[in-house]
Amino acid sequence: MSNIYLGEFEELMLTMVGILKEAAYGNAIVEEVKTQLERKVNLSAVHVTLYRLEDKGLLKSFMGGATNERGGRRKRYFELTSAGIKVLQSLQEQRMKLWKLVPELKFSI
Length: 109
Fold this sequence. Notes:
The structure is a single chain. Strands 1-2 form a two-stranded antiparallel sheet. The protein has helices at 8-20, 26-37, 43-55, 82-99, and strands spanning 59-63, 76-80. The chain has 109 residues and is mostly helical. Helix 1 (8-20) crosses helix 2, helix 1 (8-20) crosses helix 3 (43-55) and helix 2 crosses helix 3. It has 4 helices and 2 strands, in the order H-H-H-E-E-H.
């Protein structure tokens, strides 16, 4: 895992897939980012990043069933792989280690 480095947007997408679990697909991720972070993200950028994370082995995807509301089109859902979970855990540990070193902030975690 030490060879995998993620950019801020990649980390955000990986985290959103972890949050949404079985409901993680492009538009749902865009909406979750907007709701949780009050940040607008481009659907195309989300998809490109999700595919890149899949290429890195951190996500896997599958096609859902066709729905009438989508004109018979299917959604591509994403889920964390075990490697993706390990990377998220490592990132969280690294962040907390650094945040604890900021003297003005007192964390009791």
